[in-house]
């Protein structure tokens, strides 16, 4: 298939620039992939869509304040966006400047911190923080929350909490697993009391998630690498869910990619390492029975993933419906509850 086949028209006014006051107040578009049927609901109605014995799987990554602003010794401004921590003071990052910095260049940050450019790897730069403090410590103090490029405002102190899931635990992401932003503590407690089980995987979302596909043919696209982890506890939780006839429901495309990476052999197994899994039409799902997700950018790998799961025509029809009904799109926008076009035939 071609990238252009995943295009849809979206008025800019529907791109959410800020979160709602209440996390669970978002709207929820339900798509039955098997029939294409659509239903408009609210996210707080999720209770009615889940059953006792179902298993929700969340991505517990924590977003780092991963954007730094500095200057070169010539005075030119520099913006650094972390892609991945490579050690206590070493990172792989995107660097924006009037002229790409060469190896050996020093970038001066707030509070007297300095970063040295070690070299380049494709579009990314290897950078090293000078001094004794860890890079993560410095980021937590002077970094800015890395709001997506389609949010046309500067980050605010409120984003430190709202661009983060309430269950975020493991620092390492530079973008939020946005489907999880709709859950608050009260909803999690209510679902647990109703017999819905929960487990957590980890995928540290990279800035590459916002990069457009450059190849027109999907077969030519290469995914950026992201670290993910599935523990023995998750594998056991999935097996228990299957044994009692429950469904495995991925909260977000990152949770789905993590689970399907760990189940690539046909059986879910513990896993820790990088994934470059590109889920596109024709993919054999081995683990996930339903998906909670936000609305995604046109021609993005995430929209392709949803089409692979719920059907190409069905998904794009749902997006056209969402536009017509003025749903809010992207990271701070509304959500979908999606069931597959074909039932999971995995373990």
TrEMBL record:
Q: Where does the protein end up? A: Cytoplasm
* Catalytic activity of the protein: 7-aminomethyl-7-carbaguanosine(34) in tRNA + S-adenosyl-L-methionine = epoxyqueuosine(34) in tRNA + adenine + L-methionine + 2 H(+)
Q: Which family does it belong to?
A: Belongs to the QueA family.
| Associated pathway | tRNA modification; tRNA-queuosine biosynthesis
Q: What does this protein do?
A: Transfers and isomerizes the ribose moiety from AdoMet to the 7-aminomethyl group of 7-deazaguanine (preQ1-tRNA) to give epoxyqueuosine (oQ-tRNA).
- Subunit annotation: Monomer.
Q: Which InterPro entries does this chain map to?
A: QueA (IPR003699), QueA_dom1 (IPR042118), QueA_dom2 (IPR042119), QueA_sf (IPR036100)
The positions making up the signal sequence are none
Q: What is its EC number?
A: 2.4.99.17
* GO MF term (any one): S-adenosylmethionine:tRNA ribosyltransferase-isomerase activity
- Please report the name of this protein according to its UniProt entry: S-adenosylmethionine:tRNA ribosyltransferase-isomerase
One Pfam family from the UniProt entry?
Queuosine_synth
* Transmembrane helix in keyword set: no
């Amino acid at each position: 298939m071609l990238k252009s086949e995943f295009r849809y028209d979206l008025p800019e006014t529907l791109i959410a620039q800020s979160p709602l006051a209440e996390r669970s107040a978002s709207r929820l578009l339900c798509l039955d992939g098997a029939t294409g049927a659509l239903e408009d609901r609210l996210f707080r109605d999720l209770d009615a869509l889940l059953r006792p014995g179902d298993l929700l799987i969340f991505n517990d990554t924590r977003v780092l304040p991963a954007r730094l602003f500095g200057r070169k010794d010539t005075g030119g401004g520099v913006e650094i966006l972390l892609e991945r921590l490579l050690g206590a003071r070493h990172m792989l990052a995107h660097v924006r400047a009037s002229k790409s910095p060469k190896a050996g260049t020093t970038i001066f940050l707030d509070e007297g911190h300095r970063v040295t450019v070690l070299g380049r790897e494709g579009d990314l730069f290897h950078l090293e923080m000078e001094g004794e403090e860890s890079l993560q410590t410095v980021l937590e103090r002077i970094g800015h929350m890395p709001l997506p490029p389609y949010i046309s405002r500067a980050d605010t102190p409120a984003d430190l909490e709202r661009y983060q899931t309430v269950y975020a635990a493991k620092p390492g992401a530079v973008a939020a697993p946005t489907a999880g932003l709709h859950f608050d503590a009260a909803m999690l407690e209510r679902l647990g009391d109703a017999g819905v089980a929960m487990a957590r995987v980890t995928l540290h979302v990279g800035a590459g998630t916002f990069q457009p596909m450059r190849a027109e043919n999907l077969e030519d696209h290469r995914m950026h690498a992201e670290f993910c982890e599935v523990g023995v506890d998750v594998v056991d939780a999935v097996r228990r869910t299957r044994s009692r006839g429950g469904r495995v429901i991925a909260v977000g495309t990152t949770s789905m990619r993590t689970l399907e990476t760990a189940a690539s052999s046909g059986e879910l197994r513990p896993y820790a390492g990088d994934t470059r899994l590109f889920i596109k039409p024709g993919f054999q799902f081995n683990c996930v029975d339903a998906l909670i997700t936000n609305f995604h950018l046109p021609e993005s790998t995430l929209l392709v993933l949803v089409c692979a799961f719920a059907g190409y025509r069905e998904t794009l029809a749902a997006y056209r419906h969402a536009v017509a009904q003025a749903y809010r799109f992207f990271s701070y926008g509304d959500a979908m509850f999606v069931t597959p076009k074909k039932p999971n035939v995995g373990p």
